[in-house]
């Protein structure tokens, strides 16, 4: 399967997989503002190849490096929308997961002309209560000693306090020192202020919101509100899944069905 690498006009890196109609896949929060390597690259390719096999040329896309500390989500959206316009010359399909889903919503709120159809996975019109607290804790940790503390994410995976404590033990093992925390801090700050709730009714883009009923970074009401306030919004909920829905075969099937609909 054909693969390649590059970056959009303003520096957003992408890993390209497959041939066919372009599908821009906006990644979740990441520490490195570069294309994934090593195990991360293997995981990424495993995630996007099903879309390539379905006939898309997938552009797995992160955030540009060297962000200003004052960067807003509107800045990120404008930068990427300019890059998409220059790269493709026409509206393209955009799929965003988690932080990438927030960014997809910001793009269709600010620059809907850049997007043909949008898929918002595991994200809503603003951060949920748990998501906001987790990201602020991550942000403070990075500012304090440049450590990414993965155990802080446990509250998004289960509501059971005992299970949260158990989960946090192995997750501490994947906590690590970040060489240059400036870029992830800038994104965490930007998403902390992200909120397009009032703008949803004015967004013309046909949009699919997909979530897991066991995703506790947001509330289920927030996912539903996001879809229902969009004039052309749709909602799919997976009852037994949590935040990481993108590895599900059903997720791929639902996204492809939505994007290929006449």
- What is the arithmetic mean of pLDDT? 94
Which class of the largest domain in CATH terms? Answer: Alpha Beta
Rounded Rg: 17 Å
Sheet with the most strands: spatial strand order: 1-2-4-3-5-6-9-10
CATH architecture group name of the largest domain? 3-Layer(aba) Sandwich
Mind describing the biggest β-sheet?
8 strands, mixed
Provide the CATH superfamily of the largest domain: Alpha/Beta hydrolase fold, catalytic domain
Number of domains: 2
Q: Into which percentage range does the β-strand content fall? A: 15-25%
Q: Could you tell me how far the N terminus lies from the C terminus, measured between alpha carbons in angstroms?
A: 27 Å
Q: State the order of secondary-structure elements, H for helix, E for strand.
A: EEEHEHEHEHEHEHEHEH
Number of strands: 10
Q: Which structural class best describes the helix and strand composition?
A: alpha/beta
Low-confidence residue ranges:
none
Fill in the CATH topology of the largest domain: Rossmann fold
* Alpha plus pi helix count: 8
Fraction in helix: 40-55%
Shape: globular
List the helices and strands and how they pair.
Blueprint: E1 3-7, E2 13-17, E3 21-26, H1 38-53, E4 56-61, H2 73-88, E5 92-97, H3 99-110, E6 115-121, H4 129-145, E7 147-148, H5 161-172, E8 176-177, H6 182-192, E9 206-212, H7 220-229, E10 233-238, H8 249-260
Parallel strand pairs: 3-4, 3-5, 5-6, 6-9, 9-10
Antiparallel strand pairs: 1-2, 2-4, 7-8
Helix pairs in contact: 2-3, 4-6
